[in-house]
Amino acid sequence: MNKHELAEELRRKQLSKAEEAVREFNKNSRRQMTIPQFRNAVTSCSDEEIILSYITCSSCGALILSYDVDVDALARSSNSADEWLDKTYKAALKHRGTHVKL
To answer: What is the pLDDT at residue 98?
Structure first.
């Protein structure tokens, strides 16, 4: 698969979980979001933005993978977004080990 195909699958995954995502967001935020707002946010993301949302560490903001090299190679060697996510998860675990525990 190429990056565009990957981004489309990732969008579909996010949109299929819109109700759950909005419920979680609203539970943990003073700002409230509606399902249509969530869907609009997801569909208005560029391919790069949607992929970056999966490879950016939520704790430190660092990229877990190189967008230009790693994402492209993993996308080409994956048959689905789920397969790509499994491979990305391994990189995330490795990255998480770099965080300093205080």
So the answer is: 80
CA dihedral 15→18→22→24, nearest 10 degrees, is -100
Token couple for 68: 């230009």
pTM of the model: 0.82
Query: Which residue bears the tokens 């950016």?
Result: 56
Q: What percent of the chain has pLDDT over 90?
A: 68
Note the Cα 52 to chain centre separation in Å: 6
User: String of b and e for 74-94 (b: at least 16 CB within 10 Å)?
Assistant: bbeebeebeebbeebeeebee
